[in-house]
Amino acid sequence: MASTTRGRPRSFDRDAALDKAIRLFWRRGYEATSVRDLTKELGIGAPSLYKAFGDKRQLFAEALRVYDEEYGGFIEAALAEERTAKQAAARVFAEAPARYTRRGLPAGCLIVSGDAGTPDAKVAAHLRHIRETKVAAFADKIRADIASGELPAGTEAQSLAHYTMSMLSGIAQAARDGVHRTELERVTRIALGAWP
Amino acid sequence: MASTTRGRPRSFDRDAALDKAIRLFWRRGYEATSVRDLTKELGIGAPSLYKAFGDKRQLFAEALRVYDEEYGGFIEAALAEERTAKQAAARVFAEAPARYTRRGLPAGCLIVSGDAGTPDAKVAAHLRHIRETKVAAFADKIRADIASGELPAGTEAQSLAHYTMSMLSGIAQAARDGVHRTELERVTRIALGAWP
DNA sequence: CACATTAGCTAACGACCGCTATAGAATGCG
DNA sequence: CGCATTCTATAGCGGTCGTTAGCTAATGTG
Q1: Torsion (CA) B160, B163, B166, B168 in degrees, nearest 10
Q2: Domain limits at A94?
Q3: Per the domain annotation, does A4 fall within a domain?
Q4: pTM to 2 decimal places
C-alpha cells in the first residue's frame, strides 16, 4: 500500500510546469499572477494544478524554494565559497547585474519583489523572512572577518550587510525599470567602493 | 455659466479625503488598494469618489502628484538648494531614513513601491517615468559638478545618479521590511562613502 | 415658489478571483 | 475482464473587483 504508481498517471511534466510557474511569479509577482494565468501558461486545468501543487500559496512557496536554488542562490554560493566577506560582496555585486537582466528570463529578483502589493500577510512575511535570513548570513561573514582582523574593528557588521543587500534590492528594482546590465555593473562597481 | 457654486455642495473635505487616499496607496500600493477600501477609509460612497476624483487611476495619479509635493519632494529640494551634487546626496541620504519611517505614516516610499505588482501598464509606466526623471535630475547636477571641476573628470554621472537612487529604493524597501530609522541611517552613512 | 444643477445613496452590472464538486478517462492489480 | 485508484475536463461556487444607472437630497438662480 501507499504504492508509487497507481491510477491514471500525470499527463504533464511537474518540474517543467513548476519552472513556468516560477517565471510567471517572477515576472508579475504573487498577487498579479492569477490561477487562471497559471493554468493557461502551464497548459493544464485548474484541478490538475491543485492536485499537483496544493493551492496557490503552496505553489508559490515551492516556486520560491526552487527559484532560490536555481536562480537566486548566488548570494549563498558567494558567502560559502569566497574567503572574505568583501570578496563575497565583490562577487555578488559582479554577478547580480547579469542575474537580474538575463535574456529570456524576467528582470529583477523574485525574492525582492515577489510579494509586492499583496495583502496576503503570510506570503509577505515568508519573503521578508527569506530576505532577513540573507542579510543575517552576510552579517555573520562580516563579523567573522572583523574577528579575524580582516575587516577594521569598528566596522558595523549588520549595517554593512544591510547596505549590501539594500543595494541589491535597489538594482533589482532598477532592472525591472529597464536599466541595462552594463549600467547596473557600473552601479555595483561604485557600490563596492563603500566597503572598508 | 460655468459657475462656481451651483447645485448641492460636496459634503466632505476633498483635500482631507485625498490625503487619506495617499496614505492608503502608500501603505498598500495601487493594486492592493481597492475602491471599496478607499470609500471605507474616506468615509464616502463610491459615486462620490468617482464624481470627485474621476476613476481609480486618476485618483492614484493625483495622489502621486500631491505625495511628491508633500512627502517625496525632498530630493528635488536637496538638488535645488544644495550647492554641490555630493552635498545634495549627503542631505538626501541623511533625510531619507526618517522620511521612510515616520510614525503615523506608512513605511517606505509611494513612488518606489506604489506600482508594485500591478498588471496595469499605464500605472507602472507612470511611476517608472517619475523615477527616471529623478535619476536624470540627479545626473544633471552631477554633470554640472564635473564640468565645474567640483567632481573628478572621470566620474560617471549617470551611474552615480543610478547608484544614489537605487540606494534610496533599497532602503525604502528595507523600511517596508521593518528596518528601523537608526539602522537605515547607518546604511546611508556607508552609502555616502562610495561617492567620489 | 419652480427649476436647473450638482452630490449622495442604494443597488447592481459584468468580469474576474481562488477554488472545487462532479463526472469521465487512464492506469495497476486481481 | 472487473475494480480500486488516480488524474483530467467541464462547469460553476461564493466572493470581490472597478464602475455606473437611477433615484433622492441639497444648493443657487429666477
Answers
A1: -80
A2: 73-193
A3: no
A4: 0.94
